[in-house]
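Chapter summary example.
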Amino acid sequence: MAAEAAIGAIDADIVARYRRVQTGVVCDALGRLGMAGWMDGIHPMKLSAKMAGRARTLRFAPRRGAAKPDVNIYEVIRGLSAGDVLVIATDQSSSWIFGENMAHTSMYQGLAGMVTDSCVRDGAELAEMAMPCFARGLATRPPSGLEIVAADIPITCGGAHVQPGDLVVGDADGIVVVPGSHLHEVLIQVEDLDELERQQERAIRDRVPLPELLAVLASKKIKK
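The structure predicted for these 224 residues follows.
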C-alpha cells in the first residue's frame, strides 16, 4: 500500500462530524456544490451500520495467470491504519471477495469498515460484527478467477470514483464518498442541511402552514 504521508490523514473531529449525519444529507451537500459520490447497489450487512473513515483502495481484476500476485489481501489489511475503510473494486464480480475471516482481520486491525462492489460470504456472521461491511450481495461462488492488481490507486466502486484519502461515509442507505480535497467545504453544507432536516421534521410534525414548510424546503437548495 502507498505510504501514509502520501495519502494524508483526516482529522478525527472531521470524521466524527461526518459520522453523525445520514448519507442522504451528505449526498445533498455534494449536490449543492455540483459534485457527486454515491455508490449504486452497495448495501450494509446490517441496517444499524454507521461508518466514516479514510479510503484505502484495492483493485481486483480477472486472473491472467501470467505472474503470481506479490501480495494477498491479508497483507494489505495488515498494512492499513486504524480508522481506515478498505474499498475493494472488482467490476461488480458475482463472486464473494471477503468473508468473516478477512472482516475479522480488518476489525482487529482497527478498520472503520469494508466496502466492495463484489459479493461477500458468511453474511450471518458479518451482520453480527461491530465493524460495518458493505457489499453488492451475498454469494457462495469463490473468487478463484480474480487477483489483486493494484492498491492505493484511484478506482471506481459502485459507480463512484474513489481515491485514497477520500472520506467514505456509510449507513443503512448505502455509501457516499467525499473527495479528500473538499472535506471542509462539503462539511459546511452537510451541517447546514442537517439542521434544515431537523427544521423540516419539526414543521411536518407541527403541521405548520404549507408556505412555511415550502420555505424550509427551498432553503435546502441554497448553498451556505
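To summarize the output: The longest strand covers residues 51-62.
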